[in-house]
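retry 2 of 3: previous attempt timed out while embedding S-adenosylmethionine. Reduced batch size to 1 and resubmitted. Inputs unchanged:
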Amino acid sequence: MIVEDLYYRMLKWFNNNHPDEMHRFIASISENQYHCKEWLVDSLDRVGHMIPRDENHQFKVEIIGGWFGFPLLEMLILRWGSSIKEIDFYEIDPFACKVLTVYLKMWDVDFRNIRIFNEDYFKSHESNTDGLQSDSPVLYEKQFRRAHLIINTSCEHMEDMKVMKKAYEFPERTMLVLQSNDKDDEDDHINCVVDMDELAEQAGIRQLYGDTKVLKSKDKDVLTWWNRFMVMGKWD
Ligand SMILES: C[S@@+](CC[C@H](N)C(=O)[O-])C[C@H]1O[C@@H](n2cnc3c(N)ncnc32)[C@H](O)[C@@H]1O
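retry 2 succeeded.
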């Protein structure tokens, strides 16, 4: 079910509970955010037939660095929901996980197979997770993760995705969908790339599809342009 005033309700929640974090909420629903998540969900058509599936023709999704979860989860479930068995959400920031939990409760989405993985968050919110607690809340657990599709739109924020390969049981079957950028003037953009090829190389994947978007934003009346890259592919 989609709640029509969902973002209004999230806005109220931020205002009442975390007014100091309001700027992050605003950033998370920017035009660029919408545009780039829509771009991803639409482009999945290109590789959809190469995502491995289980006996029910469904696939398991892992989202890494998914921030507050919106608007990607909504778009993904609306468009691909019947094909998705479950979603594991790995996010290092405990506050982001808290926001996601609130959002899922407000959304009251039928799709309940979403698990959030963040050790600190679950240590401090054990009584308030409403069934969303993971069995093994460790961000980079080493033993045999299973995912048919890995989505990471935050590659510029973290180490190369090639280090993740060893965490999966059947890494060569898994489809990876990655986004990054060349906007290296932000402190938390620690691993930018210059183009799609570098993003694929950084992840150690064979590129099956790739695309680039030129984006712009305005900060204190200064207009900035940068590139956002997306690659889809598999580990060899
Ligand atoms: C600013 S947000 C999203 C930016 C991205 N450009 C997008 O539009 O989706 C980046 C997220 O990555 C998360 N993150 C950074 N390093 C991470 C890691 N090693 N594992 C999981 N999440 C991580 C941060 O906590 C943050 O929520």
